[in-house]
Design goal:
The chain contains seven helices and eight strands. The chain is an alpha+beta fold. It folds into three domains: about 90 residues; about 90 residues, Alpha-Beta Plaits, CATH 3.30.70; about 45 residues, no CATH class. The chain has a five-stranded antiparallel beta sheet with strand order 2-3-1-5-4, with helices on one face. Strands 6-7-8 form a three-stranded antiparallel beta sheet. Helix 1 packs antiparallel against helix 7. Keywords: Coiled coil.
Length: about 260
């Protein structure tokens, strides 16, 4: 091979290396752009999730306020109300709770859903009162005694949004331990817990906070199992996604630089 041919080959190799370097530079620029876009998407997603949680909290609060004058009654068999649920409930409450005043019931009906095929299962009854103070009087009287209908124990409860009921369920294990220890507690609205300890009452924002404090006091309490979908799990998933994406871009960048060093 002559020197001119060798020079020509070297020029071709040099040209190829130059082209490879240019393509690697372009690839690195694209990776940088993707990393920037990924960061923007991460920030946007985090913002949207926070806004979603704020909106859900507001909707839940509005729903809870709209149900303030309602109570739920559990245990009354199907069709016991006859032709008028409102008349039946008014007579039932007056008779069982020894109340003579006008209850001012605006609406009363079974919970929405198909009628159970099993006669032993009954849907709850939702009762709406015109006045909040009457509703509170009914609950106070009902919780102060054991109410029966047709030999079956009847229970009364506030009508709460699903999100709040799910948070209250997280206190089940804690309530069980407190009842066994004969320790007085309350669950103020929306889903907090107040425990009356010997050193004074303490208010907890959620079941996790209450469980942590109880463990410090020597109680064996399992970590509450979250039954809600309040946006926090999604935030964690977002963080995991961002971590994985960042790791992927880092590996791509390292491979490009390694290939560039080999070519040089």
């Amino acid at each position: 091979m002559t020197s001119s041919e060798m020079n020509k080959k070297l020029e071709e190799v040099g040209s190829d290396i130059h082209n490879q370097a240019a393509r690697l530079t372009e690839a690195e620029q694209r990776v940088n752009e993707l990393e920037t876009v990924n960061m923007d998407l991460r920030d946007s997603l985090s913002y949207c999730l926070k806004q979603q949680k704020n909106l859900l909290d507001k909707v839940t609060d509005l729903e809870g306020r709209s149900r303030r004058n309602n109570i739920c009654i559990y245990g009354i068999k199907e069709e016991a109300e006859g032709n008028s649920m409102q008349t039946f409930i008014a007579n039932f409450l007056k008779e069982q709770l020894s109340i003579s005043q006008d209850l001012q019931i605006q609406r009363a009906h079974r919970s929405l859903g198909p009628k159970p095929r099993d006669a032993a299962i009954s849907r709850s009854i939702l009762v709406n009162f015109h006045r909040y103070d009457i509703k509170e009087k009914i609950l106070k009287a009902a919780w102060g005694k054991r109410v029966f209908y047709d030999g079956k124990l009847i229970s009364f409860a506030h009508d709460l949004p699903t999100e709040i009921n799910n948070k209250l369920k997280e206190y089940r294990n804690i309530k069980k331990i407190l009842k066994e220890g004969k320790i007085r507690f309350q669950t103020p609205y929306p889903a907090k817990m107040r425990i009356h300890w010997d050193d004074g009452p303490r208010l907890y924002a959620d079941a996790s906070e209450a469980a942590d404090d109880m463990r410090k006091r020597g109680y064996r309490v399992d970590a509450p199992r979250s039954t809600t979908a309040d946006g926090e799990p999604a935030t964690n998933q977002d963080a995991h996604w961002n971590k994985a994406a960042s790791s992927h871009f880092k590996r791509v960048r390292e491979k490009l630089r390694e290939f560039q060093r080999e070519q040089v």
